[in-house]
Specification:
With 87 residues, this protein is an all-alpha fold. 74% of the residues lie in helices and 0% in strands.
């Protein structure tokens, strides 16, 4: 999923640059960097998930309350099959 998100974000930045003729330098510089490998993204994802699990443990009561609220609200789910626009 991360690989698709990165790929589509780069495409979005390039399209915006082509259409508008300009874009913030930092955005263009970030998009122009070398490709990020799937394995690097997987390592980053694992690290981020570990931090989130740790935060969930520290905030267990608040996390449980949030999950109860989320389970009881009726929010429509996005049916868009495109990873980038759906996320």
């Amino acid at each position: 999923m991360w690989y698709e998100l990165v790929k589509e974000r780069r495409k979005s930045i390039a399209n915006r640059f082509v259409e508008a003729g300009r874009a913030p330098f930092a955005t263009l510089a970030a998009a122009a960097q070398a490709d990020i490998s799937r394995s690097s993204l997987a390592k980053w994802d694992g690290s981020a998930r570990a931090w989130l699990r740790f935060a969930d443990k520290i905030k267990r009561t608040e996390q449980d309350q949030l999950m109860l609220i989320v389970a009881n609200i009726n929010v429509p789910i996005n049916n868009d099959m495109s990873v980038f626009s759906s996320v």
